[in-house]
Amino acid sequence: MAAVNEIFAKELKKSIFMQPSNSCFLRVFLCILLSGIVGISFSQTVKGKVFDAKTGEPLAGATVRLENTQYSTIVNLDGTYVLKNVKPGNYQLNADLVGYNKSAAVAITVSGNNVSTADIQLQTTSNYLAEVTVTGGDKTTDRAVRSLEKNAPMVQNILSEKTIQLLPDVTVANALQRVSGVTIQRDNTGEGRYAIIRGMDQRYNNTLVNGIKIPSPDDRYRFVPMDIFPSEMLERLEVIKALTPNMEGDAIGGTMNLVMKSAPDRFLFTANVSGGYNTLFSSQSFTSFPHSGISKQSPAEINGNNYAANPSADFSNSNLHYSKVSAPVNSTIGFTAGDRFLNKKLGIILSASYQNFYKGATSERLVQDAQPSPVPLANTPSFSDSYVRQYSTQTNRVGIQNKIDYIFNSNNKISLFNMYLHQNDYETRYTPDTTVGLNSSATQSQLIVENRSTWQSQSIYNATLHGEHRLSDKVMFDWSGVYSIAKKELPDQATYQYFVTVTKADDGKIISEDATIATGSNTVNHVWQHNTDQDWAGYANLTYSPNIFNRVVEFEGGGLYRYKTRNNYYNEYKLESKVPSGTPFTSVDDLPLQFETGGDATGNVTAVNANTYTAHEKIGAGYLQAKFMLVKKLQLLGGVRVENTQQDYTTAMPLTFSGAYGSIHYTDVLPSVHFKYLLSDDQNLRLSYFKSISRPGFGEIVPYILPGEDFTQIGNPQLKHIQADNLDLRYELFPGLADQLLLGAFYKHIENPIEYFVTRDASPSALFVKPQNTGQATNYGFEAVFTKYFGMFGVSANYTYTHSQITTAKAYYAYHFNNSAGDTTAQVNQTRPLQGQANNVGNISLLF
To answer: What is the DSSP pairing of strand 63-66 with strand 72-74?
Structure first.
């Protein structure tokens, strides 16, 4: 057929150019047509699949080549490849991918209009040593994590490294929102920070790195801010939703396990650089302040609590000088390098990431009074303030992690993992605040303008020494020694405010703005706060796998001991202007200041408070579990875990202060059982029950009084820890490659849930919030996950419905006409969802 086409083309060409009447345009057109005919006649296709010879996993990213030609292509997400426009002939075809041996050449013949098909299998790189065999493979793909999900004894969802690479998320917090049942609590700039799993607040979840719990840099709570982790440092991200006895029991919503990169089987080096721009700053400037002049210690820390601070000498205003930055550029850079040495016994990997982002937000808020109004309707909300807040935040984030492992022989392996994370947030907040309905008219409005500068520094360091030892054919022993420390610093958070009277014309346009000082107001505040959370921990696990009634039964037992020390320091200095009210305001540097009226004139009145404390926590845990096939297709894993908790705290307050110190001691017995029925080779049906707990944060059980973003928060030494019974049912289908379908339901019954409630003082507009236990709550829902790849395209979608219910007592205010007794107050029960829950959560990703 190709020969006939060629003869036809030659004859057509001859006939065209022998006709003098043909125009030049017609000749050109027919030449193009002729070229297309010839091209089509010789345009052949070679296609096929590339997959792992052992697992059948599609090897996306592999390179397929025709040897000694320019023909090559990259394998698609589903393992397919296509080579187009290949000239007829005989070729040698091969494929190559890091972590695999280059394939043997496959001979193919391309002829006529036929489509040539050739599938290629790749063998993982294997290195045989005198004492140990190291087998490599690509553990970063979707197919690899689908296998982990399928074979796991519990309910979990996993994101692979390659999936994370395809997503636009640069932090683990934002990547987590791609997992079924997970929503993200965001900061004031919209950046993801904390994970909410199945509608359960972040307090109900815990965070592991390589299976080891890490401390939190937060000054009050236990949960870890997930935005401190660069996503590119992960090998995979696991969200475990049903706990087994060998897992720590303080997770009711779920456990997030961040598995970091480990040494590859041969030399690996990857690097990335990116830049970007936040379009918000095309309409407004980014506001920044200098950082170099900020003192990391308060005057009381430097000179002692008895030091009489000087309002003018001991406090700098350098961080209250603002400048505008136009179009700041966001940037990221990262690399990973690893290899194996000493005849492949020694593995080393190093991964580092740096990110610098400029973020901003503008929000409008109404502040509600603590006591609602009975007019015009009973329990009508009333508001005390209306304000706008404008944020500019620069975040720079550094992450470094390395892992060194050494394989002594086939029975003994040891590894040392180190991770350091550091994040700086430099935030300016501008707030014009007005009292609703007061000090305003058609022509004038009175505002309180507030500027705040915050430098927040957070860091986490973890070092884990881990050993694995095969003591016999049936006995395995592993252990871990862990040191971790998390820190947060808030050095000299500075705030100043002044009054502005705005005069307007009849059409609403502003005529003038007069800035003044008001005597008696807190004109300038300085806050120092820092905390550390330090862990020493030891883990040990022993596994024995005998044959009982011709079935392998895996018995496992072990435990942990953790000693935690939490230190927190807080100091606030409140200064006010000394001039008469109404004095014109020029700049913060010109303010004549004194310590707040009614306070200690020596300036050390706030150097000692209940927000400064030291707390300890000792946790001892032990467990026993067994895993075996109950019948041919039914696997059972069951056991019990016992956790003993001892806590104590001591504040800086004198012993006569109520709640100056305290302690608590409790023991929890946490049974669990997990059934997995194998419907077929690619289908599972799971049913799980487990009991779990959630401990209150350290700051919550200390009688602190701390001003927050919106309300002043107070502690509650009477808080109890939370207990829950959890049920899970899930159907799983893994049809092959990286595809999956997961359908599940869950139910949770919660005892003593901790919720935040409003506590009022004498002034209705003064809001205090306080953590309290609230009896019982329930939470149930449904989850669905679907993933499918079509050649170069892929779709991943999930949906979760959650419904929670909790009943609490509320004060009900009503107004009665013609009632000499006036308004009445009643206590009523209110049934509502748990705080922070969304009923419907969905996510869809389209990949190319």
So the answer is: antiparallel
Is the model's pLDDT at 712 over the cut of 90? no
Tokens 């690097």 -> residue = 271
- Whether 808 contacts 789, CB under 8 Å: no
Residue of 670, 728, 662, 654 lying closest to 696 (CA atoms): 662
Token pair recorded at residue 593: 């200041």
Q: Is 377 exposed, middle or buried (0-12, 13-18, 19+ CB in 10 A)?
A: exposed
Distances, alpha carbon 198 to alpha carbons 185, 195, 799, 842, in Å = 13, 10, 11, 12
Task: Answer yes or no: are the C-beta atoms of 543 and 556 closer than 8 Å.
Answer: yes
Q: Tokens for 327, please give them.
A: 């179009």
Report the SS3 class of residue 279. helix
Distances (CA, A) of 73 to 60, 70, 98, 230, 426: 11, 10, 16, 31, 46
State whether residue 743 is helix, strand or coil: strand
- Whole-angstrom distance, CA of residue 243 vs CA of residue 155: 8
pLDDT (tens digit, 9 = 90+) per residue, 311-366? 888 898 999 999 999 889 999 999 999 999 999 999 999 999 999 999 998 888 77
Structure token digits, residue 787: 């993933």
CA 479 remoteness from chain centre: 28
Residues linked to residue 282 through DSSP beta bridges, in sequence order = none
DSSP string, 149-178: HHH-SS-EEEEEHHHHHHSS--BHHHHHTT
Peptide bond into 153 cis (omega under 30): no
Q: The tokens 């159907």 sit on which residue? A: 731
CA-based torsion, 800, 801, 807, 808: positive or negative: positive
Separation of alpha carbons 53 and 30, rounded Å: 50
Rounded distance, CA 730 to CA 741, Å? 10
- The dihedral region occupied by 56, where left means phi > 0, alpha psi between -120 and 50, and beta the remainder, is left
- Residues sharing a CB contact under 8 Å with residue 307, sequence separation 6 or more, in sequence order: 299, 300, 603, 604
Measured distance CA(177)–CA(442) in Å, rounded: 47
Q: Would you say residue 6 has pLDDT above 70?
A: no
Q: What are phi and psi of 588, to 5 degrees?
A: -65, -25
Average pLDDT value for residue range 131-139: 44
C-alpha–C-alpha distance, residues 313 and 401, integer Å: 43
Q: Are 663 and 648 in contact (CB under 8 A)?
A: yes
pLDDT tops 60 at residue 660:
yes
Please state, in angstroms and as integers, the Cα–Cα distance from residue 373 to each residue in 542, 729, 825, 827, following that order: 63, 47, 11, 16
Length of the chain in terms of residues written? 848
Beta strand 824-832 pairing with 793-814 = antiparallel
With CA atoms as reference, report the closest residue to 443 among 361, 511, 367, 372.
511
Strand order of the sheet with strand 767-773? 705-707, 712-714, 767-773, 754-760
